[in-house]
Amino acid sequence: MIRKIRHEAVKQSGIQHLRAIILTSVATAVGLSPVLVETSTQAPLPIPIAISASSGILCATVITLFLVPCLYVLQVGFPPHDAPAVGLSPGPYRSTERF
Length: 99
Hints:
The chain has helices at about 1-30, 35, 45-75. With about 100 residues, it is mainly alpha-helical. The two termini are about 20 Å apart.
């Protein structure tokens, strides 16, 4: 029963935070893109910094959205298929449909 609730919580948090995390990461990476295409004589210094910052942000996004929830579900365990979703009452933002 608790496993089912935790599994549903992982799915709901992923759905709720997906848009905000992706928008923040993409906006930061796009904001660093003018530095990446800079061709002035002072460009050799900030270009590697922009490359490492943008790639680090994009890798951290992938880890945050996919790896951490997967590791959490593997650590806690999968819910049994026949277990009812006890304790999950539909709230104003929660759908009763299955994904």
